[in-house]
Design goal:
284 residues, alpha/beta, 434 Repressor (Amino-terminal Domain), Endonuclease, Chain A, 2 domains, six-stranded mixed sheet, 51% helix, DUF5753, Helix-turn-helix transcriptional regulator
Length: 284
């Protein structure tokens, strides 16, 4: 068995938190299985927290403090660790960028908007202006910077394999200016072709299909079980229960079958981009 790779506690607050958790667990002579027993969480989840890869939820922090007799230390510090990772994202989203960076594959379904990893800055700002118009400008700036930082993964040689699916209405029905949408769609084409990724479009002629009611991001990893991320206007959650993840995976595969083939999808996006560009030129 290869030697265990210890977490670098100096790398981040989350890594420091995880290293402290491992130190106290091992000092108590407990295995991961023994520490997690009696909680509602799994061994792999606890292991990811120790490696600084997942956020400690309050219920597990209370359980850990009780078992390790750490006088509320982990419950007091779990919110601090989460805030340190926030970096311009809503608190409920803080784990997702790190998970995206660690993933071997990313597969996401965008039924209502273009996924964040594919967005241009003008699209991001426009989306926030229409969807959350009362957001302070400073918060908008922070979230735009955070979303742009997420997209840096496209520049990595070891980037995740990406497969996206969009609803056709996402690219056709928008209040944003034609020039913004033309640039946005051309950006998508550039990213998908440069990264040799796959993107499909569910046509408007398919009004009923799997996963109609919300976005889904399926993430697989080389050293951990797959996860699903789902999100609403006010919240989001990571799904790690194997049976539920499997069902999301099955429905995502069925959605692929409803969508246009990849090349036809890119041709459609190219056609719509040309239309937006023509409209923008006529408006000048």
């Amino acid at each position: 068995m290869p030697p265990r790779k210890d977490t670098d506690a100096s790398a981040s607050v989350s890594c420091f938190y995880g290293a402290e958790l491992r130190f106290h667990r091992e000092a108590a002579g407990l295995t991961l299985e023994q520490l997690v027993e009696g909680s509602y969480r799994g061994i792999s989840f606890l292991s990811q927290i120790e490696r600084g890869e997942r956020r400690m939820p309050e219920d597990l922090a209370r359980h850990v403090d009780k078992v390790l007799r750490t006088d509320g230390f982990f419950e007091r510090r779990c919110e601090d660790a989460a805030k340190a990772r926030q970096a311009g994202h809503p608190l409920y989203f803080v784990e997702v960028p790190e998970l995206e960076n660690r993933a071997e594959t990313l597969e996401e379904w965008g039924p209502f908007s273009i996924p964040g990893l594919l967005q241009t800055e003008p699209y991001m700002r426009g989306q926030m202006r229409y969807s959350v118009p009362l957001t302070p400008l400073r918060t908008v700036d922070e979230r735009v910077r955070a979303r742009i930082a997420r997209a840096e993964l496209w520049n990595r040689e070891d980037r995740p394999t990406y497969w996206g699916i969009l609803r056709e209405s996402v690219i056709r029905k928008t209040p944003l200016p034609a020039a913004v949408m033309a640039d946005q769609l051309e950006h998508i084409l550039d990213v998908i072709r440069f990264s040799r990724s796959v993107l499909q479009v569910v046509p408007e002629t398919a009004p009923w299909h799997p996963l109609m009611h919300g976005m889904v991001k399926v993430m697989t990893f080389s050293d951990a079980p797959p996860l699903v991320w789902t999100e609403t206007d006010f919240d989001g959650r990571i799904v790690d229960y194997p049976a539920t993840v499997k069902e999301y995976r099955r429905r995502y595969d069925l959605l692929r079958a409803v969508a246009l083939p990849p090349e036809a999808s890119l041709d459609l996006i190219e056609e719509v981009a040309r239309t937006y560009k023509d409209d923008a030129q006529q408006g000048d």
